[in-house]
Amino acid sequence: MLSFFVLPSVEGEKLNRSNSPLAMLKMPSILIVLLLTFLSVAAHYGVYTYISLLVELIDFRGGIGVALLIFGVGSVLSVIVSAKYIDAYLRPLIVIMLAIGGISMALFLAFSGTVGVSHVAFFLWGLAFGPLVTMYQTAVSKQVEKAKGVATSVQSSVFNLSIMIATWIGGLLLVNFPESGVRYIIYMSLICFVLATVVAFLSKRTLQSSPSPVPSTTS
C-alpha cells in the first residue's frame, strides 16, 4: 500500500519483437550475464538451503545462530561497499566476490570444524553473498539501452530457476548419499564458483564498468 503512494509513476514500454524476452535471449552479452547468474546463484543457494546441515557437518562452534549472524554481518558490509563501487568497478567486483565465495567453500572442505577458520569462512561467504542480486541486475541492465525492465525480468527468472535446480540437485545428493551428501553439495558449489569466476574474468566487454564522471571545472 505504501509503495502505491510513495513510488513514482513510470510509463511502461510496449512489447514488440525487439524488446521481448525472446529477443533478450538472442543477445550474446545477455546470455553471458544469465550464465553468470545461474552459476553464482546455484553456488550460493545450493549450500544456503541446507546451511543447518553444513553447521552440523563441521560441528560449528556457536551453532546455526552464530553462523547466520556472522554470515549476515559479512553480507551487510559487502552491500554497503558494492553500492559505492559497483558502477565504476563492475567486473572486478564480480570476480572478487565470486573468488571469495569459492575460497569460503574451500575453507569449509579443507578445515572442517576448525574453530576460527570456519567462522572466517562464514564471514567470507556472507561477503560474497551480499551483492549477488545487485551485481547481475546492474550487469544485465548495461546490455540494453531500452527494455531494461524486460532484461532484468529475464535475469530474475533465471535467478529463481537456478535456486530451484540447485536445491533439487542438493536434495538428490542428500537422499542418495546420506553420509556425504552435504560435502558433495559444497563441492558442487565450489565448482560453480570456479566456473563463474573464470567466465566473469574473461567477460571484459560484457562486464565493462561505467566511465568515471569527469569533474566539472569552472573558469
Quick overview:
By secondary structure, this protein is mostly helical. Helices cover 71% and strands 0% of the residues. Helix 6 runs antiparallel to helix 7 and helix 9 packs antiparallel against helix 10.
List the helices and strands and how they pair.
Layout: H1 2-6, H2 21-25, H3 28-48, H4 51-57, H5 63-85, H6 90-110, H7 117-129, H8 132-141, H9 148-176, H10 181-202
Helix pairs in contact: 3-8, 3-9, 3-10, 5-7, 6-7, 6-8, 6-10, 8-9, 9-10
Describe the 3D structure.
With about 220 residues, the protein is mainly α. About 70% of the residues lie in helices and about 0% in strands. The chain has ten helices and no strands. Helix 5 packs across helix 7. It is globular. Mean pLDDT is about 90; it is low at about 215-219.
Strand content: under 5%
Uncertain runs: 213-219
Give the rounded overall mean pLDDT.
91
Order of helices and strands: HHHHHHHHHH
Overall 3D shape: globular
Question: Key terms for this structure?
Answer:
single chain; 219 residues; disordered C terminus
